[in-house]
Amino acid sequence: MDILDGARALLSRASTETRFAATLLKARGPGVALIPPHRMIGVARALDAYGPAGAAIVLAAAGQSGHVAIIDERGPITFGQLDARSNALANALRAKGFTPGDSVGILARNHRGLFEAIFAAAKLGARTLLLNTDFAGPQLVDVCAREDVTVLIHDSEFAPIVSGYDPPLGHVLAWSDEQGAGPSIDSLVEAASTATPPRPPRKQRLVLLTSGTTGTPKGAPRDLALSLVIPGGYLSKIPLRSGRTVMLAAPAFHAWGLLSSMLALGLGNTVVTTRRFEPANTIAALEQHRCDALVTVPILLSRLIAEDGELAARDLSALRVVAVSGSALSPELATRAMDTLGDVVYNLYGSTEVAYATIATPADLRAAPGTVGRPPFGTTIRLLDPDGREVPPGQSGRIFVGNAIQFEGYTGGGTKETVRGLMSTGDVGHLDEGGRLFVDGRDDDMIVSGGENVFPREIEELLATHDLIVEAAVVGVPDPDFGTRLRAYVVPTAPQALDEAAVRDFVKANLARYKVPREVVFLDELPRNPAGKVLKRQLSD
After folding, report:
1. In angstroms, rounded to a whole number, what is the distance separating the alpha carbons of residues 102 and 279?
2. Residues 158 and 204 occupy one common structural domain
């Protein structure tokens, strides 16, 4: 029986890989330069040696070395240059004593240096730790010490934050506005050979950090096996195509921005990005570069849509895909974005631990605003009650995901709960009759107030529909009578645009009485991490 089960699993995996290979061929399309036959052996070797991240740049450079890979504030850099510079950086770090399996820490905003560091780390077979640009000094020191970082590559603006950690091979600047500020990627590359580094005995292992919205960020490592599951599932729902231009307006250290940018580069697209995102500048870049796709997070999408006058003045007819993830996309924002930009919005739901779970297409978002869609081929979702039983459509349950791309456990120990091979996302949700998933909130976010169970997300999404409210967050605070009471933090459209009574009356008119916040606090903005998630822990504190 075990042999039969194993055979079935192999056949299923082979079927999935074959299907996703066809998806990738469709995405590459006929418009992209083919890899010359005499270079195919080298490409195959690179795929086997470096894993997906390193192979992405080798693959693209083999087919179109002179094509522009990245446009940042320094201008364009080609695939050939990116490949050569990552070779040189890898060789320079080897000369400093870096060995396969050592850890590279990267603390950088979106620019070529971040990608050069990732690709060089792949060619070294390194553990690659992507650090959050919002870290404070003590937090960074704790994480780098836990992950045993050997060399720390960072932007000069973060020098005060990284000063408390002294890695064995020192610090390297990824971006600096001043010449001679210290050892840098540029200085190392200039002094090193651009020859292909020796094949590492192990493949790169990426360590992504959880968002840390409810505690210290955990390291979630991923061994990058040569599988088409991640790109195939993504591209089966979000139709990126080769030879186009993609605007990356999401942090590339985060799983969403990293996955999207690596796919875009691997397909031979030009990625346009900046270190910081300003709505007007982003809109201008979308027009200037005739961007086919925009990869962003909901809060930035909201700010773009708010610039309706600027949008109306620009020619964005080339924009075919607006892909968002990283935090909740409200029903109101999904509808407003498609009314403004057309039916081009895609919403990916997942977590650092399970990768993606579901993807909503424009048709899904029109039919059921607020949905996070259905799982791609090769991924399974189940909603389970506290006893592990599957709940019917319309009933809330804990969200569990099954696929071939889950992580294997946190670097500091521990893992996510699993039930029959399915891993918890940490969220609660429900399915509609069409099989579309809706996320109701975090399973640890549920507030018990006066004996009633309340998920804040329902109240937050309602408040976002109010004409005088930009956004809102709801938390539970201790109460001597009710155990916990609801407190709403509201960002109004203008100071004194409305008062507490108006907010409570609006909720009372639309939801059950026990869901009405007992307190309302007005703020200029909500605290968020770079991926756009609201930091409710800061609100509670």
Report:
1. 39
2. yes
Question: Which DSSP category does 456 fall into?
Answer: H
Extended beta strands in 183-328, E state: 205-209, 219-223, 245-249, 270-272, 293-296, 321-324
Q: Is residue 351 part of a domain?
A: no
Share of the chain above pLDDT 70, in %: 85
CA distance 3 to 10: 11
Domain shared by 46 and 166, yes or no: yes
Is there a single domain that holds both residue 116 and residue 209? yes
Tokens of 501: 């009574």
Count of beta carbons in the 10 Å neighbourhood of residue 468 = 13
Sheet hosting strand 270-272, strand order edge to edge? 75-78, 68-72, 270-272, 245-249, 293-296, 321-324, 345-351, 355-360
The domain total for the chain is 3
Residue where a domain terminates, one of 194, 224, 254: 224
Query: How many CA within 13 A on the CB side of residue 161?
Result: 22
Order of all β-strands in the sheet with 483-492? 469-479, 483-492, 519-522
Q: What span, in angstroms and rounded, lies between the C-alpha atoms of 243 and 287?
A: 17
Contact indicator for 337, 319 with CB cutoff of 8 Å: no
What pTM value is reported for the model? 0.84
Per-residue model confidence as pLDDT tens digits over 386-432: 889 999 999 999 999 988 777 777 877 778 888 988 999 989 999 99
**Alpha-carbon distances, residue 207 vs 69, 90, 116, 301, 425 (angstroms):** 24, 19, 17, 27, 18
Report the sign of the C-alpha dihedral through residues 141, 144, 149, 153, in that order.
negative
In total, the chain counts a number of residues equal to 541
pLDDT at 187 > cutoff 70? yes
Which residue, of 384, 415, 442, is where some domain finishes? 442
437 vs 414: CA distance, rounded Å? 28
Q: Which domain holds residue 459?
A: 447-540
Is residue 302 within 8 A of residue 525, CB to CB? The reply is no
Q: What does the alpha-carbon distance between residue 224 and residue 204 come to, in Å, rounded to a whole number?
A: 7
Residues 425 and 404 both lie in one domain: yes
Instruction: Report the C-alpha dihedral over residues 397, 398, 404, 405, rounded to 10 degrees.
Output: 140
Q: Are residues 196 and 101 in the same domain?
A: yes
The reply to whether 431 and 458 lie within a common domain is no
| Structure tokens that stand for 297 in this block | 């997070």
Pairing mode of beta strands 245-249, 519-522: unpaired
Give the strand pairing for 422-431 and 68-72. unpaired
Q: Are residues 383 and 531 in the same domain?
A: no
